[in-house]
Structure of 2-iminoacetate synthase:
Amino acid sequence: MRYINEALIWETLEQAEKTTPAEIEKILQKSRKLQRLTLAETAALLTVDEPEILAHIFQAAAWVKNEIYGKRVVLFAPLYISNICQNTCRYCAFKADNKLIERKALTADEIQTQVEFMLQRGHKRILLVAGESQPRFADSLVDYYTSSIEAIYAAQTGAHKIKRVNINCAPLSVADFQKLKKAGIGTFQIFQETYHEETYKYVHVRGPKTDPDKRIAALDDAFAAGIDDVGMGVLYGLFDYRFDTLALLLHIEQLEKTWKVGPHTISVPRIEPAVGAEYSLNIPHKVSDLDFKKIVAVLRLSVPYTGMILSTRETARMRDELIDLGISQISAESSVAPGGYKEKADNPQFTVADHRSLDEIIASLVDKGYIPSFCAACYRMERTGEKFMCLAKPGTIKGKCSMNALITLREYLEDFAPENTKTAGYKFLEQLKAALPHQERQTYENFCLEIAGGARDKYV
């Protein structure tokens, strides 16, 4: 598989087994300087099983996450526009040969209706998700994507509109990626699923996705098209989590070498049961909760600058715990089937474990001292790609992230929150304001006056 040296990964893991506790502590000291870890250093952390040393890893990950991003947690919602797919992937309910689900592709009008409903709930950031097949009413796959993006941005309820659309979609040509960029996407996201070639070919039975090199090349093609914010990840449970984590890091190293930019986000999904996908019920390399926590913490330490995304595949309890260990973005109140927000949808891609409403998640974050954020300022201020990395790597992005999180939380409380959330939220904001330096406090207070006067969508 392109970029992936399997022999090197296995050799690195074998050597990592010999790492001493003193060497682990030295690696953690390096992490606390916000420095990228090497493949060998990351492998050493992944081999740790001793509870006391794991606790040190978890503490270091929490510290690094706070140094880079502060207490803000970005919220978004996936919008599935189609479950029509030409791939047969053993683990996915959308696989082409699954006769147990009804196929559906949303039209532009249906998408706009879904988004208007989401706006009424308080959502502001959307991840567009689609199967790898164009609907009959679309001229091409990329045209379906771009018309869907236009429909999302066109939706409006009162003063509220979607701030930014990110997209998780199939590999495209450079020319088609340029169309996505022109349509106004933020991040292009694609998962390799597994970097172990034999496993990849086994789980991807038919369709364009059977070619692992075409999929891995999609990020290069996106960069070549001028998209400088990308997201990546693997589907944990398909193969040995240590191998796939190190392979992901090899891929990241290649992106950094070629394009001078690493991933804007890394996602960490685990396989969940899916209707009609027997493979998903008998996970070959099931990842325990403790190992999953280790994965999140080690990725945070290895690639400290990146945003880390956790979906509603995980339970509320697990999501709350993983925010402490490095997660900086979470989906909220998710539907993983086309048309599933305004109406009930019976054909999800996988089983959702966290069914809390957006408001319940916001209330929970506030209760735990985290700042829910709907910010999309970096995209609007062209703080993307290398410019974002220059701010994220030393941790200076935190000041902007924290202020924008305060502003967007204030707007949510004003417009959408029930009384109990408002009361707790305003109290929390007053506590945070009191801790701000004088100039930042004045900036925040000025924004509060503008918001009280009806201004919306403010940011720095």
